[in-house]
Every structure is written in C-alpha cells, then in structure tokens.
C-alpha cells in the first residue's frame, strides 16, 4: 500500500458531510494563518485578532469541527497522509489541500491549540478534539520531511508508540497499517496475515523488538496497558492506550538510566530512530542486555532493590484534558495529603516538604519547554504553589508564575492513574495502579527505569510484570553502586 501512495499524484480523502462552518474555514485559511502570524501575546488570555472575545468566530469554529471528524484518527490514514504527494480533504462539495493546514499546526501550533481551547470555555475541549488535533499534528510531523525530501522511515516499534491515539477496527492493524511507512528492515521481518491471532502477532513483534533494540523499552511499552487474554504480562497490548505517559518513552530527555551503566554512550544515546540499515547495527557493549524468549516466557537479568512498603492507590483525578469540579479537586488533594504523610515519615521531615516528595510527584521531569526534560527549577516552590492553587480552587491559566507553569502540568501527567508508595530501602515512588504492598522493585540490566514484578502464586520462580516505576534516588544509575547490585539473578517473566 505504501508504494501506491508514494506513486500517486494525489490522494482524495472524504472527511464527512458538508458543513457551512468547515466550508467557511477552507476559504478563510490564508486569512487565519496571517492573523496567527501577526498575533503578539498569549493566545490563552486574549485572541482579539481572530475574532475574540467573540466566542465562536466562523473560521476557527470550522477548524474546531473539522478535527472532530473521525478521519483524523483512523490509523490507516497515516500512511496515505504521509506518503502521498498531495492529500485533498473533501467535505461535502468543499475541498482543501491538507498541506494548507500544516502551517497552522506546525508553525503556529501553540496559537492554534490555544484558540481551539478558547472555543469551548468555560469547559475543557472534548477529548475527541484533542485526539484529532494531536493525530494530525503527528501526521504533519512525519509529512513535513517527506515534502522537503528528507523523509527517513522510522522503526516499527517507534511508530506503534507514536500512533497510540489513532483508531483501528482490527487490532492487528496496529502493526499492519504501519508497514507502509516503516523502514525496510521491519517490513522484511513482518509478514501480513490475518490468519494469525492478535496475541501471536503482538508477541512476535515484542520478540523482534527485544532482539533488535539495545534496551528494554518493550517493558516500558507494556506498562499501564489493560491486559489482553493469552498475552504475557511483559508483552505490550498494542491495541490499548496506556493511562499515564510512560516514563521510559521520554527517558532521553528526562535522563533516566536506572539500569544503565555509566559507560553507556555506545547504545543508550544511539540514535536508532534515524537508522535505515538496522540489521547492520551491533552493540559493542558487553553490558547490553541479551534477552532470550522461551515460548511466552522472558528471562531478564537484574537485581532486587527493595519492596513496596506502604501503598496509596491511584487517587489523583485532575488532568489536563478534563474539567475538574470541586469534588475531583478535593479528592485529589486528599490523595496527595496521604502521600505527603508517607514521604514525611520516610524522610523524617514531619514539619516540612521533603524534596524527594516534590520530585516524585512529577517524576523529576517537567512538561515546560523543552517537554519531559529533567527538572531544574525550584521544585519545592512549584509544589507549594501548585497545591495552594488547587486548595483555593484557582485553576485559571492566566497570571500563573513560571514556577507553577513548570510544576502543575507535570504533576497531573505523572500522577494520573499511578499509585504512590514507599520502599523498604527508604525512598518513595510512583508506579502501576495495581501495585500492592510487598511487590518487588527491580533493576533490570539495560532498563531505563525500575520495574515492578510479583511472584506467581502457583510458582514463585515465575514473575508477573506490572510495569515501570519512578523511585526517587535510583533513576540515574545510583542503584548500580549499591550492595544489592552484586546479587544479579535472572527473573523469568510470564
């Protein structure tokens, strides 16, 4: 299919029935882009040049409605939108070149996002809008190099992660629909067959991933996803979107290297996403993991660093994509207060805020630009300002300090859907939502984060995998210098 789209002069995509606001937007696109480029200031607080404070200017209302159309989230659309020389979007009798939308999403992405947010005040925009906009932004990111003649096909593992918010009717299309835009290495490894059960396909892909990637990001990919029957716990369920943003996916910018030796430059900084001839890559590090899969079992080397001692189940409810009411905010603050009580006890700081607590609630990273980088600002100050804002029910996005802008969104992303816990080794962390007291906290060779496992009740030599974790004080290789690191063993995950 990919070759067909590459050779086609243009691809015509029907995105739905006629809508007068969408038609008006298609005609007004040049004017909308000009106004966006001329605008000076914060579009979240004032978008006068595009018609605000009028609540719904026609052009932007049309763009708002357009991104609600299902076409933008269909997974099979990705290859046709990325590879085609031209993509014509047809809405009723109106037609627009998809590339004319690209500057609003790429060059003026912040402005466009903020305007669309204002369209739905005082409520948060519907999730379908965010998803549609986010999916098209990814298409633009992949298509831009194609238009510039610098397109490099990415690896299949990276594409499955990037396209999680897209929709697929058949769960096997989570893999098959991406073969047209992946590189030849992965196309040659994966054969299309709808006779293969979904579970078998996913296990095969995870097996190939483990064999051809010098790290254990497969386990991070498997974290926080709803289970699939007959799928081992270590294998990602590619058909489900994980609830929290996974820590391992942003390990490069966040700097996580929990199970990675200090001499890691030959593979931890390897720019695998840019390689075309992946089969020619061989790790020169004797420390790089070499997992071997026996049936649905995955043996991994590593060591036990401690156990979960106290656990607060997931309870943070406020998210960037919901409109929290007073009950949600109160419940979130109650959850955080219980977490703080545990942290103060662990660090013996009963009358102050332990810095380890403030770090843990954001996984020591920030969404501020550049996103998911390691936190470098006043982290305790950010924590205190954020909790005060929530306590006062003051969540308006105007007049926020740089400190709170760095902390508040990061807390919401890190804590949503995760449990808070203390460890037997004297630290605190956040981890999988189904974490229990007594669960094992392990460092695996080559893993960028700690991982949570649990012995099977019917066979203590086998372990269920529950997911990644942030554990304060061991995210950057510190555990490799401990006495526990001398007790390396093999854990068989099932």
UniProtKB/TrEMBL annotation:
Q: What Pfam families is this protein classified in?
A: HET (PF06985), Het-6_barrel (PF26639)
Residue intervals of the Heterokaryon incompatibility domain: 1-80
Q: What is this protein called?
A: Heterokaryon incompatibility domain-containing protein
Source organism: Mytilinidion resinicola
